# Entry
Amino acid sequence: MSSTPGYVEKSIDFLTKTITLTSKIGLIIGGGCIIFYSLINGHYPQGVSIGDGLLFLITALCFGFVYLVFTASLTATGILFSPILKMLLKLGLRLSKSQKNKSLKPALKLEPITFFSGFLGLFGIFFIIILGHKSPIEHAPLALLPLALYMVYSGYTDTTNKIKKLERSAKTFTLAGQNFNNELDGLKQQRLIIGALLIAIPLIVGGVTTDLLKKSMQLAKIRIENATIYVKSPFSNILPNPLDSKLSDFKKFEHVTITFRGVGSTTLVEASDEDTYIKLEIPNDSIIIEAKVTKKHR
# Structure
């Protein structure tokens, strides 16, 4: 570790800026995806209070964090399997050389495997198995997504290294002028586009946006599956399979999916039987959600 007096301060400043930037990105992605989640479920929260707004921010950050971890893990998985990609690229270059009799070099320097990327890549494999095992055909893009992210990430780091090299050259040789500034600005703009592409690719081609949303909503307790609820009349007359309860004017329902709760004055639930599937918005004062409590063994 460096013993420079300002090393700790610089490290703390870098960490603070990284956390702030990550939080902003996560909030933007999370907020947009929660709105998308509301749209696909046809639920638009009404009567939103300040407390509900805070819950919305927490949920958005929750999804943003899950999504960023998901993207980083898949990128690391791509790095983990990079030897296969490098072997294919070398084979392609050799074929190109033999046909054109030219000495070709790869335009992009691919990132090597590190201990951290190998460790994080195992989580990416776990994500792929969990999200894709139920419907492998539907989630087929997940198999190629890590390599695509790896290529884009390599482009991002390669552009970053070019920017650093150019800035060092400017300090060493006192470079100045419009051409230098244009080249530097062009590289920074290119890096920004590649970074945005790196974040957007899983949303566009991953086929897992809805799955990630559901998992994130469950983590934030906005969505609850296999729940037991008590519903007051007249809403209890609409849902299938009502059961008697000890609460007057309430009916009990089991194995219900609570799709959206906690934000606004209504709760969206889904219930079904062999012949009926119902999605119903219920006022919060007409529904009680049973908390599952496990006994502790002393």
Notes: The mean pLDDT is 77. Strands lie at 224-232, 250-260, 266-272, 277-283, 287-289. The chain has two domains: 7-215, 223-289. The two ends are 47 Å apart (CA to CA).
